Automatic annotation (TrEMBL):
It comes from Duganella rivi. Keywords: Phosphoprotein. This is histidine kinase. One of its GO terms (cellular component) is plasma membrane. InterPro entries: GAF, GAF-like_dom_sf, HATPase_C_sf, HATPase_dom, His_kinase_dom, HisK_dim/P_dom, HisK_dim/P_sf, Histidine_kinase_KdpD.
Length: 400
C-alpha cells in the first residue's frame, strides 16, 4: 500500500461528509451497520463506522479478510448487493453470512485518486431489505462514487498542505539566511566606508569625485542592507524592534535627516515645519528612518519642479508627521498595495530600490503603536504618521 492504515483512517476522518453519508445509507436501506473499510489482499480494517446493531467493530478494527465478502469484491472489482441471503442461491450456504449473522448486505468498491483499489462502502443487517431495487442500488453506487471523489480531494489537499509547509520552512530559512548575510556584510562594508573617509582627508583633489562616488555607493549598500535586515527581522520576530526613550528634542534628529536628504538631492526643495521642544516616548532613530523613507519616496515619485513639504505637529497627546509632494493622484487600488513589501507600481521603479521603504515605514509606525496613512488627490499626495501618546506606546510595549 502506498499509505499506512493510520494515514488512510485519518484521510477518511477528514472527509466531513462521511458521517452524513453513513447515516443516509442506514436511513435509506434500514441497515443497522454501515462502514467504510480499507481492504488489501490480506487485510480488512474499518475506517469509519455507523453501528446501530452493537456489532462491535470500532474504527481501526480488523477482520480476517477470508471471512468477508469484501475479498470477493476486491478480487472481482465488482459490487455485491444482497436483499436476502436465505433467498439467494449464490450466498445461501456461504460461510460469511452464517459467521456474521446477516440477511441483507452490500459491498461497493472505493478507489484512490490513482485508480488503485482502496476498499469498500459496505453494510449489513440481520433482517431482509430491498437493496437491489434500482433507485436504492443507484443511490448506493452514487454514495460510493462520492466517497471515492472525496478521497481524491483529500489527497490533493494533503499534498498541497505538505507543499505549503515545505515552502514556509524554505521561506523561513531564506529569511534567516538573509538576516545573517546582512549582519556579515556590515563589517567589511564599515571597513570600506571608514577607509573612504580616511582617504578623503589625504587624497589629492583630483580623487575627490571618485571618493564621493565611492562614499555614496557604500551608503547605498548600507541602506539596502538595513532595509533587508529590517524586513527579515519584522517577518521573523513579529515586528521591528524598538529602543524606546523619552526624547525631549525630537526635532533635532528629524532636522538632521532632512539636511542629509537636502545634501543628497540638492536640486530638490524641501520645506520643513518642525516646532521646537518635541517631546515623545519613541525610538528616535526609527522615526528618523521613517521620515527618511517617506522623504525618499516623495522625492522619487513627486513632481521634481515642486517642493516637498514636511510638517510635524503635536497636541493633546497626538504626534503627527506628514510628508507631502505634488504630482498625479495615486489610484485607490494602488494605495492599497503601497505598504506591502517588494511592491512597485511598475518595473521602471526597480532602479529606485527594493520596494521596502514604505513597508518598513509602516512597520515602524505599527511598532510605535501608531498608523501610517496616505491621502492622494490630483494636486498632492500626503503620507501621515500618527501616534497617540506615551502611555499607549508603553502599554503596547509591555504587552509585546
Amino acid at each position: 500500500m502506498s499509505q499506512t492504515l493510520e494515514a488512510d483512517i485519518a484521510t477518511i476522518a477528514q472527509i466531513s461528509a462521511v458521517p452524513t453519508i453513513l447515516e443516509a445509507v442506514s436511513e435509506m436501506t434500514g441497515l443497522g451497520f454501515v462502514c467504510i473499510a480499507r481492504v488489501t489482499a490480506d487485510s480488512w480494517h474499518s475506517c469509519a463506522v455507523l453501528d446501530k446493531l452493537n456489532f462491535g467493530l470500532k474504527v481501526g478494527a480488523a477482520l480476517d479478510i477470508t471471512t468477508t465478502l469484501c475479498e470477493e469484491v476486491r478480487d472481482n472489482n465488482a459490487a455485491i448487493i444482497i436483499d436476502s441471503v436465505s433467498d439467494s442461491d449464490q450466498y445461501r450456504d456461504h460461510h460469511t453470512p452464517r459467521m456474521y449473522g446477516f440477511q441483507s448486505y452490500f459491498s461497493i468498491p472505493l478507489y484512490r485518486p490513482s485508480g488503485e483499489y482502496f476498499g469498500t462502502l459496505c453494510g449489513l443487517d440481520p433482517a431482509k431489505a430491498q437493496l437491489t431495487e434500482k433507485t436504492t442500488r443507484n443511490t448506493l453506487m452514487l454514495f460510493a462514487e462520492l466517497i471515492s471523489r472525496q478521497l481524491a480531494s483529500e489527497v490533493v489537499l494533503v499534498e498541497t498542505q505538505a507543499a505549503l509547509t515545505d515552502e514556509m520552512k524554505t521561506a523561513k530559512m531564506r529569511e534567516q539566511f538573509i538576516a545573517m548575510l546582512g549582519h556579515d556584510i556590515r563589517t567589511p562594508l564599515s571597513t570600506l566606508m571608514n577607509g573612504t573617509e580616511i582617504l578623503r582627508h589625504h587624497a589629492p583633489p583630483s580623487l575627490k569625485p571618485l571618493l564621493d562616488t565611492m562614499s555614496r555607493s557604500s551608503q547605498r549598500i548600507a541602506t539596502l542592507v538595513d532595509e533587508v535586515t529590517d524586513f527579515t527581522r519584522g517577518r521573523m520576530g513579529g515586528g521591528i524592534s524598538l529602543n524606546l526613550r523619552h526624547e525631549n528634542q525630537l526635532e533635532v534628529p528629524l532636522q538632521q535627516a532632512i539636511a542629509e536628504l537636502r545634501s543628497v538631492h540638492p536640486q530638490r526643495e524641501i520645506i520643513a515645519e518642525l516646532p521646537a521642544g518635541l517631546a515623545l516616548l519613541c525610538d528616535a532613530s526609527r522615526l528618523v528612518q521613517l521620515l527618511s523613507n517617506l522623504l525618499n519616496n516623495a522625492i522619487v515619485h513627486g513632481d521634481p519642479s515642486a517642493p516637498v513639504y514636511v510638517n510635524v505637529q503635536q497636541s493633546n497627546g497626538i504626534f503627527e508627521l506628514a510628508v507631502t509632494n505634488s504630482g498625479s493622484a495615486i489610484p485607490e487600488g494602488v494605495q492599497a498595495q503601497l505598504f506591502k513589501p517588494f511592491w512597485r507600481a511598475n518595473q521602471a521603479e526597480a532602479r529606485q530600490g527594493l520596494g521596502l521603504g514604505l513597508f518598513i515605514a509602516s512597520e515602524i509606525a505599527i511598532s510605535h503603536g501608531g498608523v501610517l496613512e496616505v491621502v492622494s488627490s490630483d494636486s498632492a499626495t500626503t503620507f501621515t504618521y500618527r501616534s497617540y501618546g506615551a502611555e499607549f506606546v508603553e502599554r503596547r510595549t509591555l504587552i509585546r
